[in-house]
Amino acid sequence: CVCVDHLFFCLVHSCIVLGSAITRPPLLFPQDALEVLAESYEFKEIPGRCLAFRRASSVLKSLPWAVRCLRDTEGLPCLGEHSKAVMEEILQSGHSFEVEKTLSDEKYQTLKLFTSVFGVGPKTAEKWYRGGLRSFSDVLAAPGIHLNRMQQSGTSTSHHLATLPAVSKAEARALGNIIDEAVRAVTPDAVLALTGGFRRGKEFGHDVDFIVTTREPGKEEKLLTGIIERLKQQGLLLYCEYNASTFDMVKLPSHQFEAMDHFAKCFLIVRLEGGRVEGGLHGAEGDGRGWRAVRVDLVSPPMDRYAFALLGWTGSRQFERDLRRFARAERRMLLDNHTLYDKTKVLFQMRPSSNVLSPCTL
Ligand code: ATP
Ligand code: MN
Ligand code: MN
Fold it and tell me: Is 362 exposed, middle or buried (0-12, 13-18, 19+ CB in 10 A)?
């Protein structure tokens, strides 16, 4: 626990850059196979098995080397018999019968699609599936389905996205240049950081996530609308959903834990010139040059919330979950995208936000 403790404070305090170079072999990775099994048990609501596979997968993901044979994993924690058997099958034959069966299961595929929406968990996905729904269009057309704030923004963007292929690291870099240019045009001294999966060093992602803010308090409110306007003028914006900030420092912490934060944010689809054109939404101009559509998320917290937002948006979801669980269970603190809140001081503080730690006091 000393280790986890140390990691926790290092992360919150300095927001270490997690990226590292990862090479991508062509066959199914054992860690991805175990993740599929974890998800499948999550959908079946068998938490013990889900966690066992998820931990095994996380251990493999954290290795700085690629596992070539089972002997490479000797002495590693969290690898149970079942995980080892799946790994062995993949390492020997390149595939796993159990994983392939799971991947081709209609229920797994539908639940995977529904839970890809931020704010839709396995319970809601299962309910929709049982109600005969199989696609986002079914969900949006179904009578009597109440979608909360998160689910509304998720499903409304996701049904546009079903056909978008994965974004590569090179494409994420090219998009970074586009966003950087737009940000500078609006506010030259803005702070822009890549976050999400690409900040963790992933080779491919379903979108590209950025945090953008400015050192001048209050000015971040206008930043996103300025960037959106700029991208529109350049003819690069294919889709935009903007959510204004509902963040209020005085109301911290939220009584109910919310995965979705209150910062201004936008979910975009941006046209990337010269991108790969196979599959998905794309086109070719008269000069034959291709373009493709890429999903981009921008979030704009005030500068004094930057560290928490960066930590929260860097993911992975499992890592965020574990970090928050650790804060709650081991430290009696509440961690979310806005703040780290010390519950043990709540009785001794008069002002509602005075037990909210600022990143510089940690
Ligand atoms: P990929 O995009 O490649 O699927 P990712 O890890 O970047 O992987 P995202 O869905 O882009 O996944 O999310 C990145 C991080 O931001 C996650 O940790 C998630 O918890 C957080 N996040 C995503 N959407 C929101 C949101 N609307 N509000 C708050 N946090 C969010
Ligand atoms: Mn992402
Ligand atoms: Mn995202």
Answer: exposed
Spatial contact of 38 and 79, defined as CB atoms under 8 Å apart = no
- H/E stretch holding 328: helix 317-331
Q: Active-site residue 209, yes or no?
A: yes
Atom of ligand 1 nearest to the CA of 313: 16
Q: Which atom of ligand 1 is nearest to the CA of 198?
A: 7
Nearest in space to 57 (alpha carbons), one of 75, 21, 84: 84
pLDDT in tens, 205-239: 989 999 999 988 888 888 999 999 999 999 999 88
- The answer to whether the complex's ipTM is over 0.95 is yes
Best probe residue, ligand 1, of 313, 316, 323, 336 (max atoms within 8 Å of C-beta): 313
Q: Which two tokens stand for residue 49?
A: 């098995």
Determine which residue's CA is closest to atom 6 belonging to ligand 1: 197
Tell me how far apart the alpha carbons of residues 67 and 122 are, in angstroms, rounded to a whole number: 31
Phi, psi of 163 (to 5 degrees): -100, 5
